[in-house]
Write a structure and sequence with these properties.
Layout: E1 4-8, H1 23-32, E2 36-38, E3 41-45, E4 51-55, E5 60-62, E6 76-80, E7 83-87, H2 91-104, E8 107-110, E9 115-116, H3 123-133
Length: about 150
């Protein structure tokens, strides 16, 4: 198994209904991003030498990933649950997923509903770090000129 992260337009990624990212929309995004490549399959060599391969028309790989091809590592993204999915992404892949989500009018959400931001960190973690940096000084949600 593994932990999946979703690029979704739905309220909850697992909802049956709600706005979806179509396969055509996903392919159009891939065609517009020179760092993405539509392969139509994902393939990995297992420890025993067997090759595990999954085929789907929408499977793409992020070729600019710093770990691309290192020890067979690839940043695969694929359609699922009405959105785009990556399994066990690291912080760098999460940041790319956020960039993709912005282009698709979506957001990045984990299996348990946590959201991720531009830096690949959970949104709540970023707020907690902000609070830790300035204890007792909650950041204003208004522009500075409207505080006074």
């Amino acid at each position: 198994m593994g932990y999946e992260i979703h690029i979704t337009r739905k309220t909850e990624w697992f909802d049956e209904d709600g706005p979806e990212i179509s396969l055509e929309g996903w392919k159009a995004y891939i065609a517009s991003d020179p760092e993405m490549r539509l392969d139509g399959y994902a393939e990995a060599t297992m420890e025993n030498g067997d090759v595990f391969r999954i085929e789907h028309d929408g499977i793409a790989v992020w070729t600019a990933y710093s770990g691309h091809g290192v020890d067979g590592n690839m940043a695969w993204l694929y359609p699922g649950s009405g959105g785009i999915v990556a399994k066990n992404p690291d912080r760098e892949i999460l940041a790319k997923m956020f960039e993709i989500a912005q282009a698709l009018g979506a957001r990045v959400v984990g299996d348990e509903g946590e959201e991720y931001g531009a830096d690949g960190e959970m949104a709540e973690a970023a707020e907690a770090a902000e609070e830790a940096a300035s204890p007792g000084m909650k950041q204003a949600k208004r522009p500075w000129w409207k505080i006074f």
